[in-house]
Amino acid sequence: MPNFTSRPVLRWAVPAVAAVAVVGAGVAAKTLAVAAEPDLPPRTAAQLLVDLQTAQLDGLSGTVVERADLGLPAIPLLTGDQSAKLMSLASGKHTLRVWYSGPDRARVSLLGTQGQSDIIHNGNDTWIWDSQAKEAQHFAGKPGSAADKGAVPSPTDMPTSPQEAADLALKALDPTTQISTGTSAKIAGRNAYELVLRPKDTASLVGEVRLAIDAQEKLPLRVQVLPRGSANPAFEVAFTSVNFARPDDAEFKFNPPADTKVTEGNPAAKDAEKQGGEWQKQHGSDADKPKSTVVGTGWTSVLVLRSSDGAAGAATSDEQKKAQDAISQLPTGNGGRTFNTKLLNVLFTDDGRVLIGSVNPERLAQVAADPAAALK
C-alpha cells in the first residue's frame, strides 16, 4: 500500500488547534447541498486511491462547511465559557473560508455571527486573529521548528478541510479495511467519485468513511464519517464552493487593526514550559517523563498515556481541580470512568492512565488489562 500519510497535498490546511482556541460559538452555517448523481466514466477503488496519491495541488480557495454530531456528554468540562470555545468545532455546523498557495501560504477563516477568527500562515509568520475580542497572536518561525519550541500551533484531530479529514482516514488503511466505490455526486458544482472505506473489525466505532474525490483535480471535496450501524454521518466536512486557482498573495498578508491587542508568541505555553522545567529539577527528569504507548493498529488502535506527568507541575491547582471535578462526573465502568461519543471513547482508569480510541468500551477495558499498556 502506498504511503499516503507523507503526501503534503493532504496536509495543506492551516493547523486547526488555534482555530478552536480563539473562536466562540454561534457560527454561520450552510446546508451541504448535493445535486443529482452525475454520469462519470467508471473507476475502480484502486484507481481512486492512486488518484489521491498522485494529485497535485498548486492553489485553492473556497468555502467549507463542517458538521459534527458526536454526541458529546454534557459536563462542565465541555460547557464552560473557555471550554465551549475549545469544543466549538466538535458540535453543530460551522462555515470556514480557506485559501492555499503552497506549503508556505495558507489561511483559514472561521466565520461567526459577531465576527471572525483567522489563522494566517505566510512564510515564517503565523497570525491568530479574533476580530470580536480584538486580539491577535503572532508566532515567528515555521510551525514545528526547533526555534519555536512548540509555540506555533500544530494540527489536532478536528479537521478543517476535506484534505485533512481524508489524511486522517487514509492513515488507518491496512488489511483490516474493506475498500470499495460508492455513487458519484456533484459537490460544490463539481463532479466527484466516491471512495468508501469500511473497517472490518466490529470493535471499531467507525462504520465507514466516504470520500468524494474531484473527478478532474483528484482531490477530496467531501469526507463523511458514519458510526457503525448508522446511516447518518457523525462528522462531515465539505466544500460548498471551490476554486483551484492560486489565491492572490494579498490574502496571506495580515496587518492588525489599530485597536487590536497583539501578543508575541504564547506566554501561557512559555510559562508552563518554565514551570515544568522547575518541577523536573525538583523531582527528577528521567523517572517522571511523560509516558505513552499505542496498542493495536489501524482503526482499532488505542492510545495509552498517563493522566499526569512532569508537565503537570506547570498546571495550576485550580486547573487540576477543574479537570478532576469534570472527570469525577463521568459514569463509571470497565475499571474507571468513561467518556463516550459516537466516534471516540475515553477510559480514565483507577490507576491513573487514560486510554483513547475509536473502539467500543469493551475493547478499551481489554487493552487496559494488556501488559503492553501497563506503562510501568
From TrEMBL:
Biased composition (Polar residues): 326-335
The organism's place on the tree of life at top rank: Bacteria
Biased composition (Basic and acidic residues): 270-291
Region of interest: Disordered: 138-162, 248-293, 313-335
Name of the molecule in the record: Membrane protein
